[in-house]
Amino acid sequence: xxxxxxxxxxxxxxxxxxxxxxxxxxxxxxxxxxxxxxxxxxxxxxxxxxxxxxxxxxxxxxxxxxxxxxxxxxxxxxxxxxxxxxxxxxxxxxxxxxxxxxxxxxxxxxxxxxxxxxxxxxxxxxxxxxxxxxxxxxxxxxxxxxxxx
Length: 149
Description:
This protein is mostly helical and 149 residues long. The chain has 5 helices and 4 strands.
């Protein structure tokens, strides 16, 4: 996906891809400094939503786009891929509950630590990795919905 598919004002200032493991580098738990690097406005809003998701809960890329009433799942995914390293990226997920490819083990560690509901993998599942139990893990904004963007 290219930056052209992000909503207006959400294109990154650079055109190179993200640094290796941009969404999962060590230190991602630290609060991001909103003034350190100028992010596109849409990216800021996506990251703000990711920070609202409580531990042990998840939102899909589409849920985040719906929450913002702008963009779509692919645009949210692009923002997370480029800028998500400073927020709890493992809480913004695919709708089918499949763990983020190439980051499954890191995400799984976070899910287990936070008590995120998981479904055990069946024997036919590639890699025998669990999936998120979306019925139980999905967060709709609940108690924090009053302060949403």
